[in-house]
Amino acid sequence: MKLYDFRLAPNPRRVRIFLAEKGIDVPTVQVDIVKAEHKQPDFLAKNPLAGLPVLELDDGRHLTESVAICRYFEALQPEPPLMGVDALDRAFVEMWNRRMEFEVFGPIAQTFRNTHAFFAGRIPQVAEWGEVNRRAAHKRLAWLDTELAERRFVAGDRFSIADITAWVGIDFGKPSDIRIDAAHKNLQRWYEAVSARPSARA
Q1: What mean pLDDT is predicted for residues 175-199?
Q2: Are 139 and 170 in contact (CB under 8 A)?
Q3: CA-CA distance, 34 to 132, in Å (whole number)?
Q4: What is the rounded end-to-end Cα distance, in angstroms, of the chain?
Q5: Annotation: CATH topology of 2-76
Q6: What is the mean pLDDT of residues 103-127?
Q7: Is 87-201 CATH 1.20.1050.10?
Q8: pLDDT for 57
Q9: What are phi and psi of 123, to 5 degrees?
């Protein structure tokens, strides 16, 4: 088993943090997106959508979505639980992870994709759409700040995959100058706490 990775991309980082929290070591192969290695025929044979990360299983099959990869490792090694401990808890973690994907990570990613020079000439960019998403991202960070006034972590009192998604998404905002506002004390408290975890170095 091996993980196709790119150190600078956010979605592979989500999986690396998840694995680090579990204490699971998986050999990695770096696929350089800057050099378009993810668009070469040998990689497209693994994932025709050209996305990272990709987990290559021992039987030759490939898992190509971050949460699917995390769910697989959660089933292999349930402790520590990062996707819930019972039916209701799993449902709440799923709800909050989806919210972090759609409401935080998504707008930040769309801002980067549509406004940053890295994607110029690589994909069609719509600057106006990028700015719409920038405004949405700032609003969602303010919303998340209010939510975190009530609990320690995104989905409750336990660190979960929802924290990983929010954490990576917020960090990915830095190249687009989307940052935590000084007034967002709850969000800043949470961010400092998750950034101090050993998995931050994954």
Answers
A1: 98
A2: no
A3: 26
A4: 18
A5: Glutaredoxin (3.40.30)
A6: 96
A7: yes
A8: 98
A9: -140, 160
Q: How many CA atoms lie within 13 A of 29 on its CB side?
A: 13
Specify whether the CB–CB gap between 165 and 10 falls below 8 A: no
DSSP state, residue 57: P
Q: What is the DSSP letter of 79?
A: S
Number of CB atoms found within 10 A of residue 131's CB: 13
- Check residue 23 and give its pLDDT: 98
| Cα 163 off chain centre by | 9
In the three-class reduction of DSSP (H, G, I as helix; E, B as strand; rest coil), residue 118 is classed as helix
In Å, the largest CA–CA distance within the chain is 51
Query: Between vectors from CA 130 to CA 128 and to CA 135, what angle results, nearest 5°?
Result: 95
| Percent helix, strand and coil across the chain, each to the nearest 5 | 55, 10, 35
Contact 20, 202 (CB under 8 A): yes
Rounded CA-CA distance 175/87 in Å is 38
The pTM of this model reads 0.97
Measured CA to CA, the distance from residue 65 to residue 13 in angstroms comes to 12
Report the side by side order of strands in the sheet with 54-56. Answer: 28-30, 2-5, 54-56, 62-63
Cα 26 from Cα 44, distance rounded (Å): 21
Q: Give residue limits of the domains in the chain.
A: 2-76, 87-201
